[in-house]
Amino acid sequence: MAENYLLRVSAGPSYDSSTHQVVAVNGPTSTHISSESCTANVNIRVQNYRGLPLGSPKTSPYFSSAPHTHDQYSIAFTLIPHKTISGNSLVFGNDFDYPIRDRLPPGSATALHIVKWAIDPGLDGDVYADKPYLYGPLLSSINLLRVCDKIEGDKFEIPSIFHEDGISEGGIGEGEQLREAKGVPHDPAQRKKWFLREEKRKDWEFEAGRVYQGDFFNPYIDFNGQMLTSCLRTDFSLKLPGFSLSVLGYIGKQDSLRYVLKNRDTGDVLFVVVFTLVPKEDPDEDHTTKKESVEKGKEGKTHDAYEPKDDDLD
C-alpha cells in the first residue's frame, strides 16, 4: 500500500550515498555540501510533501509566490566552484547506474519528444544506454540564474546573505556587470534561448571563487499526488502539456530519481540530489531521530568546510 511508503530526499558531493545527508525538505535551512569540486548550499522544496524527515512542512511559502504557484518542486542552490569550468561543460540532469531500457513505460519516446520540444530544447542523452542519462547545459536548462561577486579570503565560504527563500534572475555587483559585458539577456527565457548556442556557452566560464545561484523548478513531476493516493505503490507522475505518464514504478530499481550537477568533460561531480521512496518501517531508518533533526536544521553526515589547495585557484 502506498501509505506504507515515504519520500526521502538526500544530497551530497558525489554519487556515493554514504556521503549524502537527508535534506530538510521545505525547511528554513540549507543542506551544506563541500568537496574538492565546490562549496554549495542546496534547498529542496516539494509541494504537498509527505516524507522524511518526519515533521517536515507539507509546503513552503515559496509555492505561494509568483512564478511558483503551479510548481511541484524546486532544487535551488548557491554554488562556489573551486576550479573554473567552461559554460559548455557544466550540465544538470538525471542519470542512472543501470540500464532502464526494459523498464521504460509506453509513451516514453513521446514524453521525451515533448520535453525537448516544449520545455528544454538543450537536453541531450540516451535513455537506452547501459548507464542512461539526460543532461542539459546548466546555462540553458536552469530556470533562474544569478551571478554574484567573487568571495574574498582563502576559504570557500558562502556569505550569509545568500541564505534566503528564493532568487531572481540577474546578478549582484560584479556579477551583473559580467552578464552585461557578455550580452546575456536579463529575461530568464531569453537567457535560456541565448545559451542554446554552443558558441555562447563556450564564451562563458563558471569562475573559481565566484558565487552563483540557481533554481530549477517545474510543474511537471508530481512526487506525491499519485504516489501517495493510489492503492498501488506507483511512481513519480510526469505531467506534460496534453500528456501524463507514470514513471518511477518502471525505471527505479530502488524507486529513486537522481539529479546531478557535473562537468561532462571531466566527469567531476559538484553535487547530487536523490528522491527516493522508502518503507515507513524500514529497519535502517530512525524516523524519530529525523523528526528531531529537522527541527534543529541538521541531518545526516556533516562535511567540514573545504580549505583549498594552492592549485584550486588556478
Detailed description of the structure:
The chain is an alpha+beta fold and 314 residues long. 18% of the residues lie in helices and 31% in strands. It is built from eight helices and 18 strands. The protein has helices at 108-119, 138-141, 174-182, 188-194, 198-202, 225-229, 248-251, 287-296; strands at residues 5-12, 21-22, 31-34, 38-46, 73-81, 85-86, 90-95, 124-126, 133-137, 144-150, 170-171, 205-206, 210-218, 221-222, 237-240, 243-246, 256-263, 269-279. The strands form four sheets. It has a seven-stranded antiparallel beta sheet. The chain has a six-stranded mixed beta sheet with strand order 3-4-5-13-10-11, covered by helices on one side. A three-stranded antiparallel beta sheet has the order 14-15-16. Strand 17 (256-263) and strand 18 form a beta hairpin. The radius of gyration is 19 Å and the shape is globular. The termini are far apart. The model is unreliable at 225-235 and 287-314 (pLDDT under 50).
